[in-house]
Amino acid sequence: MQLQDREFEKEMQFQASRSGGAGGQNVNKVATKVELKFDVQNSGLLTEEEKKLVLEKLANRINSEGFLQVVCQEERSQLKNKERCIDRFYELLRQAFTKQKKRKASKPTRASVRRRLEGKKKQAEKKTNRSYRGDL
């Protein structure tokens, strides 16, 4: 089941404000910065296991009240920033829910071992040629 099918938009809270930075007079008069807040603990759309995963993996994006926060202020229009926030929200959830593959240990190939040993031999020869042998 896709994440977008669950209709998280019902539980999202949006807040618009003036964004900082460059942009001329438009920045000073138009509230284009959008902040998305999502209450993870009180969500009816997430299972307990999913809530635990989100709280664990996205802990740095969750504030002290338990809200997952996403802020967008790149675009000049509030609507585009809102769309970007929603896209980022779904991407964050997707990343939190995907399980990392376990790394399988592998041995180095014969060719790579041979190349490494040849390199070491060349380096050793170089060093021995530099040394003073005296009167042999």
What would a concise description of this structure say?
Residues 100-119 have a biased composition (Basic residues). The protein has 136 residues and is α+β, with helices and mostly antiparallel strands.
Could you please describe the fold and organization of this structure?
- Its EC number is 3.1.1.29.
- Residues 120-136 have a biased composition (Basic and acidic residues).
- Pfam families: RF-1 (PF00472).
- Belongs to the prokaryotic/mitochondrial release factor family.
- The protein is α+β, with helices and mostly antiparallel strands and 136 residues long.
- It has a domain at 4-97: Double Stranded RNA Binding Domain.
- Helix content is 41%, strand content 14%.
- It has 4 helices and 3 strands, in the order βαβαβαα.
Layout of strands and helices, then pairs:
Layout: E1 12-17, H1 25-29, E2 33-39, H2 48-57, E3 67-72, H3 78-97, H4 110-130
Antiparallel strand pairs: 1-2, 2-3
Features:
single chain, 136 residues, alpha+beta, Double Stranded RNA Binding Domain, 3-stranded antiparallel sheet, 4 helices, 41% helix, 14% strand, elongated
